[in-house]
Design brief:
single chain, mainly alpha, about 80% helix, elongated
Amino acid sequence: MNRKGLRIAATVAMAGVAFGVAAPMASATEAHRAQEAAEQFEESLRPTASDVRDLISRMRADGANEQEIQQFELYAQQLENPHHRTKRALGMGTIVRKLIVAGLRHGGTWAGKILGKVNKKTGRYVGKYGNKIADAIEDVEGWSETALSIALVRAGVPTDVAHDLAHAIMLVAI
């Protein structure tokens, strides 16, 4: 083999090594960016203390159950001071479920965040029939996307809207 052939072979070998090292690094960087985006998306759906307080004010204006409002106030305090030991309002899953139902009934900024994750048709439907939807999912025991979809369809919600809404609710509930 002549020198030119050796140079070409060496160049190809070095390029192979470089791509072999660079590809996993690029893949790892891409995976890290995807994880950060997913965490930011997930974080945006979690209720904040101001979201809960907005819901509380709407519930008071609508004359909602004062005991439930007090539970939400305790939860808002927990969100504001996560390291401060206070009496727990409810289990995290239970309080989020109650917040979802109350948000569907009374609206507010957090309900808007949830609805922002569904299509316009579903958003309009929830705006019009929020109480009906809240009634349908309030007593669902095992919250899963399928269970919520079935409960909504049984309550008369169109299938496509039920699936979209169940998906959005599970994004928030988990």
